[in-house]
Amino acid sequence: MSIFDLALQGKHNTYNSMAAGLSGVVFRLRKEKIRQCLTDFQGVEHRLERFIKVHGIEFINDSKATNINSTWYALESMSTQVVWIVGGVDKGNDYSMLYDLVKTKVKAIVCLGKDNRKIIEAFDCIVKDIIDTDNMEEAVRNSYFLAGEGDTVLLSPACASFDLFQNYEERGQMFKQVVRNL
After folding, report:
1. Helix 136-146 crosses helix 168-180 at what angle (to 10 degrees)?
2. Do the Cβ atoms of 127 and 108 come closer than 8 Å?
3. What torsion do the CA atoms of 157, 65, 62, 106 make, to the nearest 10 degrees?
4. Count of alpha carbons within 13 Å of 111, Cβ hemisphere only?
5. Which own/partner contact pairs does 115-122 have at CB distance under 8 Å and 24+ positions apart?
6. Percent of the chain clearing pLDDT 70 (strictly above)
7. What is the pLDDT of residues 86-141, one digit of tens each?
8. Which of 29, 64, 65, 134 is disulfide-compatible with 46, CB 3.0–4.6 A?
9. How far apart are CA 34 and CA 166, in angstroms?
């Protein structure tokens, strides 16, 4: 089967799908059943969750991405221009490993947190449009206006959620609720 037929896109998910497929072969599952599972898999909430399109803009909830590495994989898997919602409690992040991906994939950044200075300083010379917000409603509204038809709004914070939310689940749920109200 083609990797383009996999339900989950991105290099990391391709590797995971290949490992799952091989495990199925080891357990002697039928190839048709393995193929069906790999094309129909629905993913897990808050993990690159493609949950809605609004006026041709896809909204993806990746609230579980609370570190740079997770966000790297999220950005790497994007095939359209991205308005990236990032921020929260910084864990001593080194954002430089995201520079190349941000240069090629991110058209605007919306910071979401109480203190976004480090993020703004890290990407100020790379992305022209950076907006500083401290609540989900403002972050989603700004992202929506910055995105255009065919673009993606990606909540992939690279930070912990504890400055504004109880946990990443609450942050992801609030994101989805606000997007549904656009």
Report:
1. 50
2. yes
3. 50
4. 22
5. 115/90, 115/163, 116/87, 118/90, 118/93, 119/86, 119/87, 119/90, 119/95, 122/95, 122/96
6. 98
7. 999 998 999 999 999 999 999 999 999 999 999 999 999 999 999 999 999 999 99
8. 64
9. 38
Instruction: Give which of 91, 89, 39 is closest to 69, Cα–Cα.
Output: 91
- The Cα 107–Cα 109 span in angstroms is 7
Residue located via tokens 């994007």: 78
Give the residue from 102, 89, 99 showing the smallest Cα distance to 168.
89
pLDDT band per the 50, 70, 90 thresholds, residue 21: confident
Q: Is the pTM of this model over 0.90?
A: no
CA distances from 67 to 31, 39, 55, 64, 98 (A): 36, 28, 30, 9, 11
Beta carbons within 10 angstroms of residue 109's beta carbon: 27
Secondary structure (DSSP) of 119-175 = HHHHHTTT-SEEEEESSHHHHHHHHHHH--TT-EEEE--SSBSTTTSSSHHHHHHHH
Hey, what are 171's tokens?
Answer: 């942050």
| Strand segments (E) across 55-137 | 57-61, 82-86, 106-112, 129-133
> Do 75 and 106 meet the contact criterion of CB atoms below 8 Å apart?
yes
Q: What is the pLDDT confidence band of residue 144, given thresholds at 50, 70 and 90?
A: very high
8 Å CB contact between 182 and 54: yes
